[in-house]
Every structure is written in C-alpha cells, then in structure tokens.
Specification:
heterotrimer, A mainly alpha (282), B alpha+beta (365), C mainly alpha (275), A: 282 residues, 13 helices, 77% helix, C: 76% helix
Chain lengths: 282, 365, 275
C-alpha cells in the first residue's frame, strides 16, 4: 500500500499540469466549437446557442483545399524523408567509423535543436524568390514565383526537420536488427541490393512507419514553415486556426478546426499503428 | 544454536509454487550450499531470508527472532548479489561504508572498520577507486567486504563464482572459504553449479521444484544421492534405465545386460534405474577382463567410440551391446595405455559402486 | 551486363549520392545564413558576400524590440526548464515503478503533446485562461511551455532510469537504508544524468517555440521567436540572420552540454521517438 502511495505522489504534479493545462483547456475548446459566432464580437457570446455550424461549414470546398494542401505536402515530405533517411541511417548505424558516427549524430541532433525560425529563414534566404539561389534558378527557367515552386520550398522546409528526425528513429530501428541476417542472405547468393530489399527493409517496417508517422504529424502541425515559406498563398491548417483567432476573432470556428485536426491525427496514428503491426513480420 | 530457522515456508507466485513447505535450520558458523537447477526455488528462498519477498506461509527466524515482519533494512543479513550491485557513483570506501552509515555506526568508527574489511579481502590501496576501474574479481571482493562490514548474523552469497573464468574461480573459491572461516560467518551459498556447491559448503542442500530433496555433506550427496534427480544433478553419471530385478543382487537392463549391484531396493518387485559414476569404471582389454570378473565386479564388453583427452583427465565413450553408451573417466597418468576409437574394450566396475533407484516410470505400470 | 556485382556497385554509388545530396541540402542553407550574417552590404545580395562586417549583430543587440523578446525568452526558458525537469523527473520515477501494462498507457498519455500542434495548445490555453482564470502573460506562457516541454523531460529521465539496475536499490535496502534513504542516495544521483538531458531538451524547445507562444504573448510580453517572426514577415533583413547565428551558437552549446551529461549516443539508443 505504501508503494502505491509513493507512486501516486510522484505522478501528482504531472497529472495536475496535464489536467489543468491540457485536458481542461481542450474541453473548453470542444465546448467553444459548438457555440455560435457572431461577426464583430470577439469569440462567442456567453450563453450563445449550441450549433454544429462550425463543423458543417468545414465541408465546404474552400476549407477542403487547405486540408488537402496540408496533408498532401506533409505526405510528400514524409515519404521523401524516409527514402532519404534510410540509406543515411544504415550507413551511420552499420558502416560509419566511430568518429563519423559521433559527428553525424551531433549534426543531426543539432539540426533538431536548431530553432525552426533559423531553418525557415535560411531556406527563404537560400531558395526563396529573393534569395541567394534565385538568379541561378531563373537562369535555369524555374519560376520562383509560381505556386509549384512554393510547394517545393515548403516541402524542403518540412524536410529540414523530417529528415533528421527520421534518421534518428531509423538508426534505432537498424541497430535493433541483427546484422547477421543480411550476411546470411548474401552468403546464400543474394546481392547486397536484393538482401536489403528482401531482408533489411521488411524487418525495419516498424521503424519506417514510426518515422513516417512522426514526420506526418509534425508536417500536419507545421505552423512557422508554411506561414513564412507559403508567402500567404499556401496555408496549412495551423495557419487557418491562427487566422480565425487573430484576424476574425472567430473562436468557435477556430475551435472546430482544432478538434477536427486532432481527431484526424488520432485516426492517422491509429491506422498507421495497425498497418505497422500487420506488416511487421519480426 | 541455530542462526537461521525456516519453518514450513511456502511462496506462491500467481499459481506457480516457487517454494513448497521448506524447513531448514542452520547452526552458527556453518557454510551451507543451496543447490538446484533454475526454477527450483533457491533464489526465492534467498530473497525470503533477505526480506525482499515475504512468505505466504511459514516462519523465518534469525537468531531466534521471528523476522517475518521486518524489512530488509531492519534485518542484519549480508547479501552478495550475483551482479555485485556495487554503487557505480561511489568509491570503494563509500560502498563499503554504506551499510555502516545506515546502521548508525558512530562516524568515528567507520574508517577503521572499512580499512579492516578491505584488508580482509586483500584490497588495501583501492579505497579511492570506482567500481568501473576494478576487475571482476576485485569488484567481487568489494561486494564481499561491503556485505561483511556490518557484521551480519548470516551471509547470503548468490552464485558467487559464476561470473568468473575458470582459473579465477579456483583462486577465489579458496580465498572465499578462508575469509568466511576467519570471520566465523554463518553462510548460505545459492548456486546451480554443483562444483561451486560441493567445494564451498560444509553441507549441501539440494532443491527441486520448491522442495528440499536431500541434505548432507558433499560426500554424502555425491556418493549416496537420495534419488535419481540428485544422482543426475550432482556429478556425472551413467544410467541403465528401466532395469528389472533378476535373482539376488542382480538386474537385467533394457538391452539385456546383466548388472550386479550391492545395494537393494526396499521393494524388489518394482523396476530400477541403475547408475555408475564414470570415475568408477575401469577400461581394460578383453583378455585381462576375463580374470577380473567375479561376483563383486561387473564386466561389460564394448567398442571405444570416442576418446577426448582433456588435460588431466581422459574421457572415453564406450558403446556397449545394444543402445547403451558409457562414459569412463580415467586419469591421464603416464604409462596408461592409450585407447583408440574402434578398439574393443571391457568396462569394469564393482557392484558396490552401482547406485540403485526406483524406476519412477515403472511404478505407473 | 547486369550482374549482382554491378547492381551492388550502383547501390553503393546511389547511397553515397543520397548521403552527399542530403548533407548539402541540410547544411547549405545554415552555412549560407551564417556567412550572410556577416555581410557588410545593406541588402541581400548575391552570394558570397563582398565584404564582411559584424554590424548586424550590433543592430541586433541595440534593437529594443528584439532584445526585450530575448530577455523574456531566456527567463521563460529557465523557469519552464526548472519546473518541467522537476515535474517530469518525478513523473518518470512514478512511471518506472508501475507495472508494465499501465506503464505504456501512462507514458503514451504524457507524451501526447509531442504530436499536438502548437497552435492548438496555445489556442486552448488562451481560451481556458480568459474564460476561467485571468492571469498575466508570463504565467500563461510558462503554462504553455510546460505542456510542450514536460514530454521531453519525462522521456529523457525514463531513458536515464532504464540504465539503473534494480539490484542496486535492493543492495541499499539490504545494507540498512530505508526506502527514502535508498531513493536519495542511490536512485536520484544515478538518474540525474537523464534528468539533466531532459532539462537540455526542455530549454532548447522552449527557446524555439513559436506557435504556442504566439497565442499567449501580447503587445508587452512576447518571446524572441515571436519577435523574430513578426520581423520576418515585415522586414526581411539581415538582423534576423544575426539572430539566427546567435541561436545557432546556443544550439552548439546545448549540444556540447548534452554530450557531457548523457552522451549523444544514448539519446538515439533507446526509442526516444516512438510515435
């Protein structure tokens, strides 16, 4: 009995913080999402009637575009991230000499610690339409003001975080894989390429899905990256919530969008976990 | 006077009976080996004595006091963990002093006691080192010093020699016994290694499936095992399983070999398992064998299957008629004629060296 | 001819190419920014800079708007770090003593803010506070940062704790220490590396946060990233580059400390990033 008591005591502060600063606020948001919004006022009026308007209006075509943009660009970035990260992780986990390993891991963690603003700024500075490389881009015939280019730059911005994250996750996954398995495949006649395609990658499915999922969730939640690199023309859902709040003071709508976002994220995590379990053959 | 008394102690873990009605008394100053395979309950018994687990049923008395309700830190039991459990963030001195400090020894007395303990385990000069700076053998000595420092009434050693390589094991075994003797500690050594058990203990207690199966001196346990399990677990053995009695003093094995045995089972009707220790088997050529056979000796002919010279001993595997193989161990003494695979040979052993046990399978019939 | 040897050679080339391209892709913008921060020109001209000057750093330090934000950020990060480290460490200790089936559930719950968009956290807190508990800005910011950083402190402390064998605690109990003494003399000292690593992560991500802080800041009290981002949207000049370099230096310092405290290898060793 004493042991249980000490455990409860230890967890009390965390639980308090979570209830007070996360659970209750989220409930407030949920409540607000069902309130009517009157233009011109800030937020909903106390005692305003309950409504599902805030949700139903999201099905409108205009909103759909924002959701689609967010998810598709996040998807692109996440897929590219694991494709690029896997060879790098493999190299660091299995082939790199110790000093190289240390240096790479330091660089990767460093990139993750690096402020999102610095990354966004650097990308804007380098790839942006007024950036360093823009003369070269124009010379090659790339329209740096076109919508497609903005998409590319946003994906680049997402990749600057997704690739290091994916590398770290995949290093863990590869480290847990017995290297003798690949060697066994090769001793049985498979080329290195075949052995990796048939052995290494299938056995790392959990790690790949995990990396994909983390990149996806971060991509969907992205705020700074689309805000700066999107140049007002491409908006993510987070930006939508912010604009509801700051420009229009339509809190109920912002709340509704937030709830929808959360539900979709939970669904995504659930689906991907099931996928990982079904594909996992370890 | 009994330092330790376990009276009808039982412990269950969710349906699995780890310790089954175990009773044990240990006198002051004795070293007892608790021997058994993994899962036999020896570790659980150890943890019950130390106070990390409380028994479901039964009493635990240390020096006459019922300690059932006492926490580990309220008992004075020394414990040498299998992985030594040295505190990595403390020096050797701090490790050894830890128990003294927490049992309220006056601060002035601690340094001299630590020094005394380190001398006892021959680690003078290592006071300021950290565990990761010590070798495995040195770490074990520190762990021993730490356990002995508080002058505990009883010391528990959990697989003390298992982590060491063969040479070190022999050295430390001798030192360990000396140290324990000089301190006069009442000791329990828990192990699955029969060599460790036989060499360290004044007495050996064999456990199986939560129960004590036999208690005796190392010689008794080896030469007069209580049942087939003990005979097989302690030392090497050759078996003639499922033999049937035939006339007085002899049995017929499943392969039709006739074996003369000096000991008798209480109920001669039931079948028996016969056992001979490899070092009691002498291998001679068939000609010599004919003169050696008599009522007191067995002579079984066969072919040498494998010869493994292992330095001091030579292990020879002999294939007898039928399916039985015998392992004979002979000393590698100069002058003994060597054997080669394929050579016909005769295995000699006396009837008094044959151990006879009830064939448990036969009783079902 | 397509032999296995050829495909393997191609694979090796491809892998090398991927590594090279990615390295350049990730590092080039950062390096460019570092150089540009020293550009002597008044405008963003073609790379490389024609002349170097530290003047942008001067402008950075003399800009009251940015400077105020920096001070608030540091204060906020320190406060949030201390609280998050303490709360997270206690929580991790509690979790480590739970039975396995509860442990996963509880851990996932407390790590959930990692996947929550910062805007939602900020938005929710703002609504909650304005509706129920009016507070000045700084406590609100601290609350927001706690939600963001505690998952990291819990995670890193748990990683630190998995290294401590249970037999050490038992040895302490056996030698006469009661549960409280064993905790303070054995468990806590050995866990402090994990706790410190968590604190480092907390500090880094607190200094970095934009989305949540944006909601919770106001005209007078705002964080450094919030200040920078408004600057970025209005006037895209090189003062921001100087600020970026300052932040990069901070990152390097944090990396160094993290390595001394826990060792960078251990950060990746056990699944830190299980989603």
């Amino acid at each position: 009995m004493r042991a249980v008591g000490s455990r409860i005591l230890l967890l009390l502060p965390v639980v308090a913080v979570f209830v007070l600063f996360l659970a209750l606020p989220m409930l407030t948001v949920l409540n607000e999402s069902f309130r009517t919004f009157e233009p011109g006022r800030i937020g909903s009026v106390a005692g305003a009637p309950l409504t599902t308007n805030n949700y139903t209006e999201l099905i409108h075509q205009a909103y759909f575009r924002y959701f689609a943009q967010t998810y598709l660009l996040a998807l692109c970035a996440s897929l590219l991230a694991i494709i690029f990260a896997f060879p790098i992780s493999y190299y660091i986990a299995r082939l790199a000499p110790p000093w190289m390993r240390k240096a790479s891991v330091s660089a990767i963690i460093g990139l993750m610690f690096l402020s999102a603003l610095v990354r966004v700024y650097s990308i804007q500075l380098t790839f942006g339409s007024a950036g360093i490389l823009s003369p070269i881009m124009s010379a090659v015939g790339v329209n740096t003001n076109g919508r497609t280019y903005i998409y590319v730059v946003i994906v680049a911005g997402l990749l600057h975080y997704a690739i290091p994250m994916s590398i770290l996750i995949l290093i863990g996954a590869i480290q847990n894989l017995n290297p003798r398995l690949t060697e066994a495949a090769q001793s049985l006649g498979a080329s290195a390429l075949t052995s990796h395609l048939t052995i290494t990658i299938p056995l790392c499915i959990r790690g790949l899905v995990s990396a994909f999922l983390v990149s996806m969730t971060l991509g969907i939640s992205a705020f700074v990256i689309p805000w700066i690199l999107g140049r007002g023309r491409v908006l993510f859902i987070s930006n939508l919530v912010y604009s509801r709040f700051s420009e229009v003071a339509n809190y109920p709508s912002g709340a509704a969008i937030s709830i929808v976002m959360m539900v979709l994220s939970i669904l995504l995590i659930y689906v991907m976990s099931r996928l990982a379990t079904s594909l996992d053959r370890t | 006077m009994n330092i330790l008394e376990l009276i009808d102690v039982s412990k269950n873990f969710g349906g699995f009976t780890a310790v089954d009605s175990v009773s044990l008394e240990i006198e002051k100053g004795r070293v007892i080996s608790l021997l058994g395979p993994s899962g036999c309950g020896k570790t659980t018994t150890l943890r019950i004595i130390a106070g990390f687990t409380s028994p479901d049923v039964g009493t635990v008395r240390i020096s006459g006091n019922d300690v059932g309700r006492l926490k580990p830190y309220e008992r004075n039991v020394g414990l040498l963990f299998q992985d030594y459990a040295l505190f990595p963030h403390m020096t050797v001195t701090q490790n050894v002093a830890y128990g003294l400090r927490h049992r309220r020894t006056p601060a002035s007395a601690i340094p001299s006691r630590v020094k005394q303990m380190l001398s006892l385990v021959r680690l003078d000069g290592m006071e300021a080192r950290y565990p990761h700076q010590l070798s495995g053998g040195q770490q074990q000595r520190v762990a021993l010093a730490r356990a002995l420092a508080t002058d505990p009434q009883i010391i528990l050693l959990d697989e003390p020699l298992s982590a060491l390589d063969a040479k070190l094991r022999l050295e430390l075994r001798i030192e360990l016994k000396e140290i324990l003797r000089s301190v006069g500690a009442t000791t329990i050594v828990v192990t699955h290694d029969q060599e460790e058990a036989l060499s360290l203990g004044d007495e050996v207690v064999v456990m199986r499936a939560g129960k004590i199966v036999q208690r005796g001196t190392p010689t008794q346990v080896y030469e007069a095992p209580a049942d087939k399990f003990v005979a097989e677990f302690v030392g090497r053995s050759n078996w003639f399983l499922g033999s049937r009695p035939k006339g007085l003093g002899s049995y017929v094995t499943g392969d039709g070999l006739e074996i003369r045995a000096a000991s008798e089972l209480p109920n001669r009707q039931i079948g028996a398992d016969l056992c001979v220790r490899p070092e009691n088997i002498e291998l001679v050529d068939n000609a010599t064998a004919k003169t050696a056979v008599d009522r007191e000796r067995n002579a079984l002919s066969g072919i040498v299957l494998d010869v493994a010279p292992l330095g001091a001993d030579v292990h020879v595997v002999v294939q007898l008629a039928g399916k039985t193989r015998l392992l004979a161990v002979r000393k590698n003494v100069r002058g003994t004629p060597g054997l080669v695979p394929g050579q016909p040979v005769c295995a000699l052993f006396s009837a008094s060296d044959v151990l006879v046990f009830h064939d448990q399978n036969a009783e079902v019939r | 001819m397509i032999t296995k040897r050829n495909t393997d050679a191609l694979l090796a080339f491809f892998v090398a190419a991927v590594i090279a391209i990615t390295a350049v892709f990730l590092l080039f913008p950062v390096i460019v920014t570092a150089f540009i921060a020293f550009d002597a020109r008044e405008y963003i001209g073609p790379f490389p800079p024609t002349a170097l000057s530290p003047k942008w750093f001067g402008r950075l330090f003399h800009d009251p708007y940015l400077w105020s934000g920096f001070k608030t950020s540091v204060l906020l990060a320190i406060a949030a770090t201390i609280l998050a480290a303490a709360i997270g460490a206690l929580g991790a200790l509690g979790i480590s003593r739970m039975s396995p089936q509860w442990r996963d559930l509880v851990t996932t719950t407390f790590l959930s803010p990692l996947v929550l968009p910062g805007v939602i956290v900020g938005f929710a807190l703002l609504m909650f506070f304005s509706a129920f508990i009016p507070l000045p800005v700084l406590p609100k910011l601290i609350a927001g940062h706690l939600v963001i950083t505690i998952p990291y402190t819990i995670r890193m402390t748990l990683i630190g704790l998995t290294g401590i064998k249970e037999t050490l605690r038992e040895a302490a109990l056996n030698l006469g220490a009661n549960e409280r003494q064993a905790f303070f003399t054995i468990t806590l000292p050995l866990a402090k590396n994990g706790i410190a690593a968590g604190a480092i992560f907390a500090f880094a991500f607190s200094m970095d946060d934009v989305a949540t802080s944006l909601f919770l800041s106001d005209f007078n009290t705002y964080t450094f990233p919030v200040a920078l981002i408004s600057l970025m949207r209005s006037k895209f000049d090189l003062t921001i580059a100087a600020a970026a370099v300052v932040l990069m230096a901070l990152t390097v310092v944090l990396l160094f400390v993290l390595d001394r405290v826990l060792g960078l290898e251990r950060v990746i060793g056990q699944d830190l990033y299980r989603a």
